[in-house]
């Protein structure tokens, strides 16, 4: 039996929960959970904000642990190996997207916490292709947030060819944004941080920002007109879109990873005349996750985390819900 923490209905606190996962699949691995990050998506799924949660619901999709069992088809992973698992737990491995290396775009891809039980548990299973080895230089206790928050902001850097010579902007210095600053700075870019909190200015600079701008001050955006090559928005609130698009130079890209629920009003001519783009992306493929982890190990990039023991999972969720997390929360499954 697996032991976990589950919500029985939308908005309910998590309670101890046991379940039998059945036989291990031939292409699967079973992982003893060591730590698991908490993402805002876990709250959204717990409360069924996206209309696809099945109860009882076990959250957790930023998982790091040790392989305990491997299916008979698994050749590249071994018992005792430390691995991580992010949003996806399975892909078909034969569609055009998978065969092109874009497993994260597989039309039948399976989410770790969508219709199955996630990492707020003592053990979890996934298709072996989605269990990514943790390289040297990456701390297994705090690596969990890299598997969702981290890869969400690293993936577009790779997908859209951000260059070391680019001038870039990061909107929102939170769970995603504080990692985006580190990635883009170590990538070689000149980085501007946009934050609504003046108290984060010094922290943003320590994480790699060369410039810090108050995102609520439209006048502060005016001097940036036409100067940036790439802006990534990590926030889930409406913005002064015209002002940010105006900060982009020709061929500039506004990239959205924060799930803002309102439509983005855009003037077609504002895009056409300077050949600007607006785009979005999900988390990355297994190969891109592995590339990100290597990059983190090489440059000492890590999430800023707060650690809670797994048994205090409800306190940790409430801490996140209240907006107090700075910047990611990790559950210690052994604490």
What labels would you give this structure?
Rossmann fold, seven-stranded mixed β-sheet, 2 domains, 27% strand, 335 residues, single chain, alpha/beta, Quinone Oxidoreductase, Chain A, domain 1
Report on the architecture of this protein.
With 335 residues, this protein is of the alpha/beta class. The chain is built from ten helices and 17 strands. The protein folds into two domains: 195 residues, Medium-chain alcohol dehydrogenases, catalytic domain (Quinone Oxidoreductase, Chain A, domain 1, Alpha-Beta Complex), CATH 3.90.180.10; 131 residues, Rossmann fold (3-Layer(aba) Sandwich), CATH 3.40.50. 23% of the residues lie in helices and 27% in strands. α3 runs parallel beside α4. The strands form four sheets. Strands 3, 4, 5, 8, 9, 16 and 17 form a seven-stranded mixed β-sheet that branches.
What would a concise description of this structure say?
With 335 residues, this protein is an alpha/beta fold. It is built from ten helices and 17 strands.
